[in-house]
Amino acid sequence: MEHTEQRKVVSLLVDNQTGVLARVSSLFTRRGFNIESLTVSATNDPTISRITVTVYGDENRLNQLLLQTERLEVTRQVFVLDDRKALQRELLLLKVAATVVNRAELREIASIYKAKIIDLSPDSMVFELTGKPDKVDAFLRMFEGYTILEQCRTGVTAMERGGMHQRMQKPPQEIRAVQFPLPGQSCPK
Amino acid sequence: MLLNGSQIFVEVLCEQGVDTIFGYPGGAVLNLYDELYKNADRITHVLTAHEQGASHAADGYARATGRTGVVLATSGPGATNLVTGIATAYMDSIPMVAFTGNVSTDLLGRDSFQEAYIEGITMPITKHNFTVRRVEDLADTMRAAFRIAQSGRKGPVLVDIPKDVTANKCEFTPKQPEPIRTVTTFDEKEVSWAADLINGAERPLVYFGGGVRSAASCQPLRDLIHKAGIPATYTLMGAGVVPYGDPLSLGMIGMHGCYTANRAVSEADVVVAIGTRFSDRVALKPSTFAKKATIIQIDIDPSEVNKNVQVDLSVVGDAAYILQAMLPKIKEAQHPEWMAQIHDWQAHDYHPVSDPSRLMPHQVIGEICSQCGPEAVYVTDVGQHQMWAAQYLRHTKSRGFITSGGLGTMGFGYGAAIGAQMALGRDQRVVMLTGDGSFHMNLNEACTAVSYNLPIITVIFNNQVLGMVRQWQTAFYGKRYSQTDPHRHTNFVKLAEGFGLKGYHCENLAQFQAAFAEALKNDGPTWIECMIGKDEKVLPMIPGGGDIRDIMME
Question: Residue B200: which pLDDT band, with cuts at 50, 70 and 90?
Fold first, then answer.
């Protein structure tokens, strides 16, 4: 079996209740997937949360993991986002050491990347940047010569363009009559 | 009506058709046990020696009948003692609901006495689990637990109930049990393709597992193999689905399966895998498993498709519905050349040779079968005796072979035998086969068999060593017998007497024949210890990661 390591962004719609994140993430752990980023929040339906997971992994193994995730009672829908259609965004907060000397050059970087300066202190600045993960990566590379004091990325949150891709319910399962004997009857052959 | 949590607990159990539960009382479940005391005429509670025994008993009950097994334990150690039993049921997809008590909600998470976070502990070994924090949620949570345990791919569900929830009151509305929700839909087109592949096959083979039994599709499976003239091999979990003696049944496949079955799967041109998961004990080397075949997989769980072995066609759904839809599309056929080839392999297969100077496992099992008949229910522990039982037992009931397959739980047997006997009643003969290693783990349940006077016959294959591990040490570790020769001097006859049951010691076949005949007349439990050689091996054997070319026949 050839191994094709790929980065995938997966959207999971799950019941909004305690323990759901533990159930989902422990499955990922069990199959040895390292979660690169993970975001959770309620959706427009308050009983449902959306978990957006970014993982690297072998495609076959990942598909199998997603089927196992779908099998959880709390999971309503699992879908891998199509790279061409997916809107992916991430928020970065970055605190950089800044003095009067280099403040201007830092402001220039920020303005090119359309990052906001949300704090200015005598010896530091805090930037806020929203964008695709690679834009955030590129922005961070600009700070290689500077002293980063603190850095915080939210991880990817994503959805697909156009239409509606989420369905809030598991596909209905038909009902059939009880197949096993009630107490007191003999067991089936 | 206004009821407290404990009353609701009993009402919902009755509503769900539960007649027997297995368990062990304790502080956190005192309210529940008080209510069970008052309702002893509606629900039989079986008290075991240890919660693990209770969990295996609930499992055995479920395996013997197909109904959901129920176990009840207290918080903390009571709950953690269930873990092995729940994991055993999970690996074999057995419907079971485990109820645990817990400390009151205001004490949760404060390291209170006998507190354990059992919901977290059992998360990866249950289909789903719940903590009930409000008495208002209790009834519907219990109903959901029973529904989840039986729906789709079956499995265990745990419901954790804090003590105050069992005392608080709320309004209770009785409900009829929900019909079992399962998957009745499947892709008609895939079924037609599968039928075409089967009709066009020259060397077809059916390979099935425990899922066939779970789906209650034993008869459609038998119809399929007879109509299309397809030989069938089964996994450990599938034993009994096709009755012993069926000319199309090749026997078990896998690590300790017969040569014929393993050879057939490597030579077949179409393999139909039904309710089975290509585990590493069957598809020991996934890359060469059924190499020459087009593989069709029928399974209810889509996450099983392509998990271990890449298949060519998968039909996801309930095997009973799929096979019934497939049958009219199947042409009646015979495969004389293929069968002749199979008969030739069978003639060269491993057949144990009896040695009059010693007591051999196949002789013991043969004798058990001739005395009990094919309708007995056989329960095993885990190890060499389990494989011998799977290879040599001649039984015909689809639920006549109860064994821990996926998890391979030593100590499973006695609890499971108690569960099976309670489920099937005293008139059903239940025979438990065990080894001295497995039996030492949980033989404490003998006291339960005595309390309820269950006529379980336990046959102990005593080779005085941990035989299966020792066999591996012999074959692959240069006979360095690390910790497999425990030098125990347990006197099983005296121990049996100590428990208050009858024990026999046998060193030859004549003694065993006589002892077993007496055991059959015994009203209560019996142990029969059979002394066998420590160098007896389970054969054939394919080492882990190997294939048919690596098979060891001696």
Answer: very high
Residue of A68, A180, A188 with shortest CB distance to B303:
A68
In a domain, A151, yes or no: yes
pLDDT for A103-119, tens place per residue? 999 999 999 999 999 99
End-to-end CA gap in chain A: 41
Q: Is B444 helix (H, G, I), strand (E, B) or coil?
A: helix
What is the pTM assigned to this prediction?
Answer: 0.93
Is residue A99 domain-shared with residue A149, that is, in the same domain?
A: yes
Within-domain flag for A1: no
Q: Could you confirm whether B331 is annotated as catalytic?
A: no
Chain A residues within 8 A (CB-CB) of chain B?
A: 1, 19, 22-23, 26-27, 30, 60, 64, 67-68, 70-74, 173-184, 187-189
Residues written for chain A: 189
Total domain count for chain A?
2
Is residue A187 one of the residues assigned to a domain? no
Which residue of chain B is at minimal alpha-carbon distance from A29? Answer: B124
Q: Which of B468, B492, B529, B537 is catalytic?
A: B468
CA-CA distance, B388 to B232, in Å (whole number)? 20
B51 catalytic? Reply is: yes
Give the three-state DSSP class for B484.
coil
Identify the domain containing residue A126 by its residue range.
87-157
Question: CA-CA-CA-CA torsion for B282, B287, B289, B293, nearest 10 degrees?
Answer: 150
Task: Give me the interface pTM, i.e. the ipTM.
Answer: 0.84
